[in-house]
């Protein structure tokens, strides 16, 4: 039995039909006798829409209230996904960043994770439930909601995978992994089947945006294997693995 963390980005949970599709994939992974914890981003453009709403009220909104507002996006997707999994006949339990034990510093809008103590997530998994965790958020020492910076759910997923001692962290997106160039712009771009952290970091610093830089650094620091793949297809994605690990030994590659 493997312990798998799956992260679904905003485009993978853009509407309720997509959430149902993701729920099926999560349940399928669980049925292959894996333990599954899921990290979700906000649905589609929710985060941008929330920012626009805030700015239409106050051109310089208080940072604390901005983070309070932005954490709402991931609460919507996490609870709807838990419901969709329930409708599929499996048990799921959703957790906010706070409930999942994400402790951050006090930099609103760009908080850094200081510790992850996912006791309630572990408990849910040990009871045989699927745990759904809101990405991109935590709490500071005052107990206020913080966000990790745009695209921060990737980092949430890796941090959770590390704290749980997961076998792999799967990052689901709308492309089949990491390509030599953006396949939406360059049709001849080739998928990279497997790659090491260092090369991904080089690509990221060249502006390739498939993974957040901090997420890759975090994975590298703790040797957490990543599988970047599409939630819209069954094709293999890109494995980002530590040196010396045979990618074929990783779980859930089909
Ligand atoms: N929803 C947040 C954003 O759009 C976090 C994320 O998607 O990773 O930046
Ligand atoms: Mg997003």
Please characterize this protein's 3D structure:
This protein is of the alpha/beta class. Helices cover 36% and strands 20% of the residues. The protein has a single domain (3-249), classed as Acetylglutamate kinase-like (Carbamate kinase, 3-Layer(aba) Sandwich). The chain contains seven helices and twelve strands. Helix 5 (153-164) runs parallel beside helix 7. The two termini are 15 Å apart.
Annotate the secondary structure layout:
Elements: E1 3-8, H1 16-31, E2 35-40, H2 46-57, H3 63-87, E3 92-95, E4 102-104, E5 113-116, H4 119-126, E6 130-134, E7 137-139, E8 145-147, H5 153-164, E9 168-173, E10 194-195, H6 197-205, H7 213-221, E11 226-230, E12 238-240
Parallel strand pairs: 1-2, 1-9, 2-6, 3-6, 9-11, 10-12
Antiparallel strand pairs: 4-5, 7-8, 11-12
Helix pairs in contact: 1-3, 2-3, 5-7, 6-7
The site of aspartic acid (ASP) has 12 residues, from loops.
